Amino acid sequence: MKFLHHEDYSRELTYEDVFLVPQQSDVVSRMDVSIAPVDGTGMTVPVVVANMNAVAGRRMAETVTRRGGLVILPQDMSMEQIERTVRYVKSRHHVLETAVVLDEQETIQKALNLLHKRAHGAVVAVDSQQRPVGMFMEKDARDRDRWNALAEVMSKDVVTMTDQADPAVLFDVIRDRRIPVLPVIGHDGSLMGVVTEKGLVRSSIYQPAVNQKGELLTAVAVGINADIENRLERLQALGVDVFVLDTAHGAQQKMFDAVRRARAFLGDRAIVAAGNIVDADATRMCVEAGANIVKVGVGPGAMCTTRMMTGMGRPQFSAVASCAAAAREMGAHVWADGGVRHPRDVVMAVAAGASAAFFGSWMAGTYESAADMQRDMDGRLFKDNFGMASARAVNNRTRQDDAFKQARKQFFEEGISHSRMYLKEGEESVEDILDKITAGVRSACTYAGARTLEELHERAVIGVQTPAGFKEGRPLNTRW
């Protein structure tokens, strides 16, 4: 990476402050580009979903990891929840999507309650042998009492295919029959999963993020105040692939000691990430303690109020560039945590030297996020989102404390406790967002003449712009 004008090195910059200058390129196709990070995790796209309670759960982990990213399960989850989630994610199919399944005698209301858990918008009704016997969609409930059984309203003209069928054949069946979802069955006729048109196309574009056993990757956050060795022992026994030591202020001795203890316990081969920090010195100390990956970012998140409350932090582009340079000197990597609002911001993070970018609130308003779907008074779908340093999160994290201690800790919140994240047209599913991000990153590589993310970083020529320059690049959907 280099700047278009050398004097810009001295400025502290956000993603909106910078742009990339197109370079001479012989990269003909976007699909000739590899956007796999080289940080040793096994990701095939530079996308990490943050360990936020309202965002990261088993649906998000399954979906994002199937498309090559990574989801970090929150430290606030109980060990029992983590065990169930990790086992679930590792058992998921690389192509087939998990169906929303109900017995045909269940009620319409129960089906409606579950319908928005998945992006494909259908409930598969099964018999006692788990064989598909019907398909229910939201339109089937129109003018019907909610206590009616699915068997009374569902479509019984169900087309199924076996799991041995070629994806191209499955695609043709969906297209020819004009059906939104195709159930896929095993040799005994029981339901294995579902496929959709978009999903089958995506399976030909994306590569799942898997470990050496072929299981989808899992990652879990561990607080530095926890009984670290005991928690790591249980996570290691589960087969967790990435261990993330997490605290809001990572440039403290307690974090460095925690990383050192984790590395000593897990051994040299484990992937250990640590953060959050914003400067080169803290990066070096994290890496010296044993971190493979350092999380960079204090205050740029949409739900975070740290900068407004404390004045602490650093503009994210400069923070990533500084920390990435220090990490690369030591053979380590950084993740850019926060501040991503557009696909271009991921490009800027990678150009600055990050191996991947973090996503939290952008993913909150999707079918797959961990929060429950709700409707406002106008019928619009939304999900509740909140910051991990908010009073709500702190209260949940300290629920074992007595009431007085809890009340004291709530005086020091640095996050938003309630925010409605509405489902946005064209981005209702996390996969829709992934499509936009990866398309943007691939296209940026062709403009830069880069075939890999590392080449994008090496060839990046960064310019600094005024707010008017950033505004000029935004599309207009109305006349001016």
Task: Identify the notable features of this structure and list them briefly.
3-stranded mixed sheet, 480 residues, CBS-domain, 20 strands, alpha/beta, 17% strand, single chain, 3 domains, TIM Barrel
In short:
Helices cover 35% and strands 17% of the residues. The protein contains 18 helices and 20 strands. Strands 3-4-11-12-13-14-15-16 form an 8-stranded parallel β-barrel, surrounded by 6 helices. Strands 1-20-2 form a 3-stranded mixed β-sheet, with no helix packed on it. A 3-stranded mixed β-sheet has the order 5-6-7.
What would you say this structure looks like, in words?
There is one protein chain. This protein has 480 residues and is an alpha/beta fold. The chain has helices at 58-66, 79-90, 108-115, 150-153, 167-177, 197-205, 228-238, 253-266, 280-289, 306-310, 316-329, 343-352, 361-364, 391-397, 403-409, 430-448, 453-459, 467-472; strands at 2-3, 18-20, 47-49, 70-73, 100-103, 123-126, 132-136, 161-162, 182-185, 191-195, 219-223, 242-246, 271-277, 293-296, 333-336, 356-359, 373-375, 381-385, 419-422, 461-464. It has an eight-stranded parallel β-barrel, surrounded by six helices. Strands 1-20-2 form a three-stranded mixed sheet, with no helix packed on it. The chain has a three-stranded mixed sheet with strand order 5-6-7. Helix 2 (79-90) packs parallel to helix 7 (228-238), helix 9 packs across helix 11 and helix 11 runs parallel beside helix 12. The chain is globular and about 70 Å long. The two termini are 36 Å apart.
